[in-house]
């Protein structure tokens, strides 16, 4: 999770987030190259005397027309690739439904018969030692590690948004509409998120906690909770 004075992204815990961070670094390098070139040309124009060669230079005009098009292609191709990867949902091992309410989440494991629970934020006065304030919940979402997970997101009252930054997941929860996305956790751990759509007075008090565990641990947890 994020910490104080952190300027970068959280550590990636899914293949999609790894791709997003790599594209972010790629775009920054392109922007750095553009800024460096523009600063160099500005400094050159200020220090050098203008000559007739720079007044009518069709070669230069051709270059500064084609070069931005090439830069846009270098940015568009990986961006479109990641966009299609984020929309791709291929035979998930587990389907999870998240329903946003004011101000808590309801989760339904649709592959199980009676596995449904509400997830509320733990108040600061009741928070166990070592847990994160405003981020810990009474019931975590437990998913198997290295398994494709499909999540269907909706809302029961107003707009919400189900977001986990370290997994690269952010899906709007809209009343009367089902949105879906998918993710794969690449390592065991606990991943924190929050509602990312202003949904009322207690918008900042409906966190999301996903716990990634080995498959055997998930099976034991699901059988215990559904029994």
Would you kindly provide a written description of the structure presented here, covering whatever features stand out?
The chain has two domains: 15-87, Helix Hairpins, CATH 1.10.287; 94-225, Sandwich (Immunoglobulin-like), CATH 2.60.40. Helix 1 (15-47) runs antiparallel to helix 2. The chain contains three helices and ten strands; from the N terminus they run ααββββββββββα. It has helices at 15-47, 58-87, 215-226, and strands spanning 94-101, 104-109, 116-119, 141-144, 149-155, 160-164, 169-173, 179-183, 189-195, 207-213. Helix content is 33%, strand content 26%. The longest helix has 33 residues, at 15-47. The protein has 227 residues and is an alpha+beta fold. The strands form two sheets. Strands 3-2-1-5-8 form a five-stranded mixed sheet, with no helix packed on it.
What's the quick description here?
The protein has 227 residues and is an alpha+beta fold.
């Amino acid at each position: 999770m994020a910490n104080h004075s952190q300027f970068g992204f959280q550590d990636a815990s899914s293949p999609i987030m790894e791709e997003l961070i790599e594209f972010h670094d790629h775009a920054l390098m392109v922007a750095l190259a553009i800024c460096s070139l523009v600063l160099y040309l500005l400094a050159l124009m200020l220090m050098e005397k203008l000559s007739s060669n720079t007044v009518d230079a069709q070669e230069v005009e051709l270059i500064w027309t084609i070069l931005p098009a090439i830069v846009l292609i270098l940015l568009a191709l990986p961006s479109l690739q990641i966009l299609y990867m984020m929309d791709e949902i291929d035979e998930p091992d587990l389907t999870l439904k998240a329903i946003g309410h004011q101000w808590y989440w309801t989760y339904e494991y649709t592959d199980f018969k009676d596995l449904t629970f509400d997830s509320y934020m733990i108040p600061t006065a009741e928070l166990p030692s070592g847990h994160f304030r405003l981020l810990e919940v009474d019931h975590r979402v437990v998913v198997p590690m290295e398994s494709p997970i499909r999540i269907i997101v909706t809302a029961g009252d107003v707009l919400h948004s189900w977001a986990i930054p370290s997994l690269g997941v952010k899906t709007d929860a809209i009343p009367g509409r089902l949105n879906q996305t998918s993710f794969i956790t690449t390592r065991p751990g606990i991943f924190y998120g929050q509602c990312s759509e202003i949904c009322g007075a207690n918008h900042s008090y409906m966190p999301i906690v996903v716990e990634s565990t080995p498959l055997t641990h998930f099976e034991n947890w699901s059988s215990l909770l559904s029994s």
